Amino acid sequence: MIRVTILAIALAVTSVTAQAALISWAASPDVPDADDAFQYSQPLVALLNGQDIYPGLWWDDVAGKRYFRLDIQGTPSGGSDYAEIYGIYIDAIPGGSDGPTDALDYIPDELTGIDYILDMHYSPTLGWFEHFHTWTGVTWTVATPDLTQRSNSDKQLEWGQDLADFAVAGGWTFWGATHSAGGAGNPDVTHDLTEAGAVPEPGTVALFGLGLAAVACIRRRRVTGS
Predict the structure, then answer these.
(1) Dist CA 202 CA 209 (whole Å)
(2) Are 158 and 67 in contact (CB under 8 A)?
(3) Is the bond preceding residue 55 a cis peptide, omega within 30 degrees?
(4) 42 vs 57, 81, 100, 137, 194, CA distance in Å?
(5) For 135, how many CA atoms within 13 A lie in the half-sphere containing its CB?
(6) Does residue 98 contact residue 114 with C-beta atoms inside 8 Å?
(7) Which residues of the chain have pLDDT under 50?
(8) Which pLDDT belongs to residue 13?
(9) What is the pLDDT of residues 62-117, one digit of tens each?
């Protein structure tokens, strides 16, 4: 009886502390960054740093929502081992806001034409808080993301947002970054920035699939005719 009770307690504790991902992610990231080529925050000096992205960036569309995932090499903590902003930066339509001129200082200076931002802010004193920003062509609007989750000791960051909230003209491009906005005379700092992920427009994907099907059909005819 005692063993059963202990087992039940253990299972209850496990069910509380364990966190499943928001969706079932692919085995490998959609935007690889395996060589850490874009890491700025001393990747060779500070191993498992809370500012560095590792090793890439995921995205997926599932059941009417667009999901993103960002993995950090180390758990953000006090001192210098954290970034103020952990974000997904999306260029979806012509125009957008540029990092060097962005009034929010939320965009890394290396990026331009950003239309949407999904972010998680970290402060050693305030903890975590999240935003979904939309560029109106003149200014930014801000809302709370539909879904967010942090797991793996705050090293796996996830967002989920309604597809209807994204005005996408054809394909779109996105980046993941860790960034500190500066302020009070301090410069903006980009700690890490992934390579760009380019998502083709649905029609392009469909045409590509038809092309593959046509090639397969031609090959079958050649095989059966020989």
Answers:
(1) 11
(2) yes
(3) yes
(4) 20, 11, 23, 36, 15
(5) 25
(6) yes
(7) 1-17, 204-219, 222-223
(8) 36
(9) 999 999 999 998 999 888 889 999 999 999 999 999 988 887 788 998 999 999 99
Q: Which two tokens stand for residue 63?
A: 């059941």
Q: What is the pLDDT of residue 145?
A: 98
As a whole number of angstroms, the distance between CA 109 and CA 133 comes to 17
Q: pTM for the full model?
A: 0.80
Q: Say what the pLDDT of residue 170 is.
A: 86
Q: DSSP assignment of the chain, as one string? A: -HHHHHHHHHHHHHHHH----SS---SS-SEE-TT-TTB-S-TTTSTT-TT-EEEEEEEEEETTEEEEEEEESS---STTS--SEEEEEEE-SS--B-GGG-TT--S-TT--SB-EEEEEEEETTTEEEEEEEEE-SSSEEEE--SEEEEETTTTEEEEEEEGGG----S-EEEEEEEEE--BTTBPPEEEEEPPPEEE--HHHHHHHHHHHHHHHHHHHHHHHH-
Residue 35's pLDDT is: 58
How many other CB atoms are found less than 10 A from the CB of residue 67?
20
